[in-house]
Structures are given as structure tokens and as C-alpha cells.
Amino acid sequence: MTWTFAIRDDDTSFYTRPEELEHLYARVMELCPVSLAVVPFHLPRKPGYPYGAEQVASGPGIPLEKNAELVAWLKLHLTTKKVAIMLHGYDHGYPGIPEFAVEESRELQEKVDRGRAYLESLLATEVRVFVPPHNRLGQAGLEAVVSRRLNICPVQSMRLKRQRRWYNFLRQRYFIMRHQVLPPGLMFFRSHWEIPAYSLTPMSNLHFLRRALQQQAALGGLFVLATHFWEAQARLVTGGETVKEALYRLVDEAQKLGGQFVSLNDLCPCIS
Ligand SMILES: [Zn+2]
User: Fold this and answer.
1) Residue 181 has pLDDT above 90, yes or no
2) Distance, CA 134 to ligand 1 centroid (Å)?
3) Distance between CA atoms of 260 and 254, rounded to whole angstroms?
4) What count of other Cβ atoms lies within 10 Å of the Cβ of residue 208?
5) What is the DSSP code string of 86-103?
């Protein structure tokens, strides 16, 4: 039975060195394209400020192109389809809450337009998917993204207040109840598609992920693994493996189970 496997990796920005991505993905990219959620204008970070932490520095954001080495690396791997580019917010700011989690804002639509156009022109590629920073999307953020005909990659735990098609919602609930996994395939809402992802962080349980992957394989479904390159060396709290080892294990398992490896761009149609 055909089933699909994809990787989402968040937080590539001006601050990312190609070696950080290489370290985790050189081996994986031979098999599976890596869909990178990229921040086009990351806010300045304090020296030594870790990835993923709340931002405290103020703007202006630093354009991705200031990191020429990274841009060259991305372009190189885009030509061979080993990476795909998604939009990960605008500056990854955290003004009290994640930048796209606010309930009201007129700026967000403009940020989506500017961020997307910037990445598309700089990297000569097409952006079809939005990945919410900190996995949070408020009503204004949702409307901004959806009005721009972008698809969304949420994590399982993310709840959106949205105009949803009840059929999708009920189908999803029923499927989860019956099989204890996400439904196979994408979910189509009135204006966009959503691609449910399983997250791999130090808090994840590898046993649960392997079980979900095996179930999706058996059901002819979809398994999107969402992780961060900057957590590669961290150990899972419920096991001895590092995030990197867990990722390799899941990719190997997907290969053994005959998964079709795709990017999230390949999964989502262009609906603009
Ligand atoms: Zn992020």
C-alpha cells in the first residue's frame, strides 16, 4: 500500500550555518527531501541566545541574504530538490506571545506577503506552506495566512479557531478515536489544506512515534515528522537516543516500510 513520509524542520534563518543543517541532514537528504520552515527576517539575537527561546531583542529583522553561505547552500539543494522552502513567520518575534498568535492585527497580512515574496525571489522557488512560529496561530494570523492561499502545517496539538468544514473535522475525530492516529492524507478546509505533523523534540516518545509511523504505513496514510536541527544532539527524556538518532531510526523504518519520501511542497497543491 502506498503511504507518504515527509520531514519538516523549523527555524532556518540568518543565524543558521549550513553545517548545522548538514550535520543532521546530509545522510537523510539522499533519501528524503527536507522541508525547511525559514524565517525571512529574523530579529537580532543576544549573543549566545539559544534557538527556540522567546525573542527579547528589538528589530529590525536581519534579512536571510546577509548569510550568503546559507543562501548558496539552500539554492544548491533546491536545484536537486533535496530541500523545499516554507514560510516560518516573518521575524520569529515574541511580543508577549508568538508573532502570529495575536487575535487582531492588520500587519500580519503584509508580513505574509513580504516574507513570502522575499523568500521566493531570493531563492527562486515557490512557497506553498506556512509553518506557524512556536506552533501558535491566532485568528488574525490564520486569516492572514489563509487569505494568501497558503497551506498550513500544524502539529497535532495545535488548535485553530477557524472556518472548518465539519466533514473534515468529524472525519478526523472519528479516525483518531478508532485508530489512535491521525487520518491519512491532508485535510482540506474551505480555503486551504492542512498537513498534520508529529513532532520530534527531546520531549517526544520514540515508541509512540514508531507506532504511529507503522500505523500510517499500514493504513496507506501520511506521516510528517516535525523537528529542529538545533536540537539534534539533545537526548529524548524518555529514552537514551538523541533527536538525531531518533530521526535516523524513523527514516530507516519509513524506508523499510516502503514509504514514499516527499517534500511538503509536493504534498500541497498550489492553490493560489
Ligand atoms: Zn520557530
Assistant:
1) no
2) 5
3) 8
4) 12
5) EE--SS---SSS-TT--S
Cis peptide before 60 (omega within 30 of 0): yes
d(CA 153, ligand 1 centre) in Å: 12
**Which H/E stretch holds residue 122?**
helix 107-123
Residue 133 has φ and ψ, to the nearest 5°, of -60, 140
* Ion ligand 1: protein residues whose beta carbon lies under 5 Å: 10-11, 133
5, 254 Cβ separation under 8 angstroms: yes
Using a 10 angstrom Cβ sphere, with 0-12 exposed, 13-18 middle and 19 or more buried, the burial of residue 210 is middle
Q: pTM value?
A: 0.90
Q: Which CATH number fits domain 4-267: 3.40.50.150, 3.40.1280.10, 3.20.20.370, 2.40.70.10?
A: 3.20.20.370
Q: Write out pLDDT tens, residues 76-106.
A: 999 999 999 999 999 998 878 888 988 777 8
Domains of the chain, by residue range, sit at: 4-267
Do the beta carbons of residue 52 and residue 228 sit within 8 Å? Answer: yes
The cell for 28 is 537523510
Query: How far does residue 1's CA lie from ligand 1's centre (Å)?
Result: 34
Spatial separation of the C-alpha atoms in residues 43 and 108, rounded to whole Å: 16
Location of C-alpha cell 525573542? 55
